[in-house]
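Hi there. Long-time user, first ticket. I'm pasting a complex I've been working with (about 957 residues overall). I'd like to know whether the download I got is complete or cut off, because the file seemed smaller than I expected. Thanks.
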Amino acid sequence: MEYPDANRVRPGISDDPGRRHFLEVFLDTSVVASLVSFFYPVLRYLIPPVQAELASDTVLAGHVGDLKPNSGAIFRFGSRPGLLMLTADGQYHAISAVCSHLGCTVQYRGDLHEVWCACHNGTYDISGRNISGPPPKPLESFDVFVKGQDIYVQRKKNA
Amino acid sequence: MATLDQVGIHLNSAESRSGRLLGLRMVLAFFSMLLLAPLSLAQQTKNSCLDCHSQLDPPLHASPDEYNASIHTQKGVTCVTCHGGDATSDDVDKSMGAAAGFKGHLDRKQIPGFCAKCHSDASYIRGFNPSLRTDQYAQYLTSVHGKLLAKGDTKVAVCIDCHGVHDIQAPNDPRARVYPLNVAQTCSTCHANAEYMKGYKIPTDEFALYNSSVHHAALVDQGDLSAPTCVTCHGSHGAAPPGVASVENVCSTCHVFQAQLFDSGPHKDAFTSLGVPGCITCHSNHGIQHPSDTFIGTAEGSVCVKCHSAGEPGFDAAAKMHESLARLDSAIGRSDAILNRAELSGMEVGEAKLAQSEARDDLIKARVSIHGVQTAKVDQDVQAGLAVAQKTYQAGLAAMAERSYRRTGLFISLGITLIVLAGLALLIRKLESGSGN
Amino acid sequence: MGAAASMRHWLDERFGWNQLMAFVEHKTVPRHRFSYFYFLGGMTLFLFGLQVATGILLLLYYRPSPNEAFESVQYIMTQVRFGWLIRSIHSWGANVMILTAIAHMFSVFFLKSYRKPRELTWLSGMILLFLVLGFGFSGYLLPWNTLSVFATKVGTDIAGQVPVIGHWTLIFLRGGEDVTGATLTRFFGFHVAVLPGLVTLLIGLHLLLVQRFGMSVPPSVEADWRANPARVQEMRFFPNFFLRELMAWYIALAILGALAAFKPWELGAKADLFASAPPGIRPEWYFMFMFQTLKLLPAKIGPVAGDLLGVLGFGIAGAVWTLLPFLDHEKPGRRSRWIAGAGVFALAYFVGMTLVGYAAK
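Hi, the file is complete. Here it is re-exported in full:
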């Protein structure tokens, strides 16, 4: 890059070609380096992240075959735990796993066919309705979709 | 709609056979039928009682609004059913005359028995509400109120004191004085009145204490109608304080785990031999507060030092349990702090935050397991929680490392920028050199 | 002919390239004790370009619906590589740009650069300022957190106070009676399509006018130079002034990067339309002076509502300020001194009320 070395007001210029060349190289390199430091993040940004979708209303909770009949497993729904259950009749059910009493994580009890909280012995049915013990409110229940081998859990849409 | 044999008159009952004036009964039945068939006419048919008494001052005042809204009136039980008399006539002599069977004001002592005439008759009540209980009177006779009434004390509560007189509602009606949200207020009408309760030798601060309690908060603030109110622990019709031996049974109706743990530990026998009740010795009965970790331990304000002193194994156990809980609590707090800092800086810590809830579960379980007052059991839960908290703390550290990586990146780019700025400045100087900048 | 020279020749035959280059070569910038203020316009332009670039990048991941807006911003902040950087630069950049725009306006005011023949430059600049404030207001809603929604509610409420057209304006802005998802869609449309289009046109006009008339010189310096022509000093735009501007732009970018790394823009909590407004709701700092004024006005002044008088007052003040070049006299005199005084008052009021607004919380 050549820089014009005449200036309207200030005539005369440093005529040391070595210094001039060094300055040019120095400036060019550092400008290029700065541009790289600006555009590197932009390029990384443009590449889609691993988790391509927002985890807002729907989440992949598991795969067919993960759960045995009459058992349940915890999955992550956003930032809270959810409980996915497979009942003996082959139906999937999903509810929030955050106990409405004090927030402990509930579990499915195959022996009781109910959802149970180990902290204070609260019980719910598989649709999340609170049956006995301290829980004052039911657990939010979700819709379950099976697509191929994938089990998706989705928040219920407001009517 | 009331039929002949339902309206307060049991033509087949022993009483009628024992010789009440059949004529009087038929008159009563006739007039009652006029009043009660069909149901809605109960409010539109002539009611001379209300016509006059709505104009009178208390204590003779009867409010038509209250009366019409009451459940008795809705079901066809009217003024005449309880008071006798003739509601069709405006002539005082006729309507309130002996000929019409007017009973007038009932003596307080007679009230429970009087209400029981219908409410203890299972086959009668079945005609109105088959699931309504009919043992209230039997229970009442076993209660403190009932026993004192039998001895002649008319200051105690009878049916109308809690249920009202002309404004009775079903207990699940929010307007009822015995609706769960209203029960404590109803009991407190006498039991919080120090003047009224003079001579009974029981405290009158229960209402105030209860209002400050977690049970009250659950009932009123959280709207949990299953939360305990006075009648839950004391009974309603059979109201009496639970005896020392049965306090634990009452509390364990809801607090199952705590009771099971208590029974399995050394406190159960100790308390029994000392003759102190379980649960309320540490938690109190009416003014139950939310326990904190300072409840257990050896510091001032803990419940353990009420019985245990330094040097005893119980004292040491208390200290150990407190220390365990405190350790887990602070470990969770430490992880929370670092995860929050990371999140505020824009780091993704969702998984770790989710795992934190597991540690919190363990702390909650530990706080329950202390009821067995055995350090080994408490430590089990605490160790599990500490393991989780350690993992989440590591995750927090990793997130902060990522943040440092960002800042390093920033400083590198800042460094390059400074070099560029220096270069530009030099270039400008060079271009304009000759007379200095 | 070398490659560069033949390309120049090709462009010149079709577009008059050499003439354009000659103009650029000869463009100068006056040098005097107020010259530093000349940086502000270019800085605002640079920041606008930065906003467009980061805005387009954000557009690749942002979703303008109430169900997903907040989550998508969260996604950008936590999942997308360097998303935190792009988003924070955009949010901080917006504030810095509005600051430089306001500073640019005040410097033009006090240096009296709006005088003939530059009246339209001032006018287009004022419209640009209003559009930029519109950018700030519409963009603020897009993350759909508690602060955004309530600040929008308060802001559109105030717009609704204007007599006659107020209610219609409120409906138009909100897409309905209340702030809802419809508002979000609408504001998104304003923010990424309508406003950029208008601003681009106006910037084009504004820059064209600046090139046409060159840089203005403040009256005192002008008088001095007229008396002493030897004292006239100028600097070539290319490369001298431009290199200095480039330094300023690098510094600005460095500051924004540092802000992004050390004080990332908050995510907040997702908006709950049914919750009541949290205490201490306030608009962004550039609207604070108006907001604080309205808060201080009594409920009623005579027969008229205090708020209404406040809104009208600001409206009239804004109109007068915009029409400034047509109100000021050419020659220095009492009127121009009054106007300068009014400007000092306006600046002091703006700064003072903003500070009061923050201190009051």
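A couple of notes from our side: The mean pLDDT of chain C is 91. The first strand of chain C starts at residue 28 and ends at 30.
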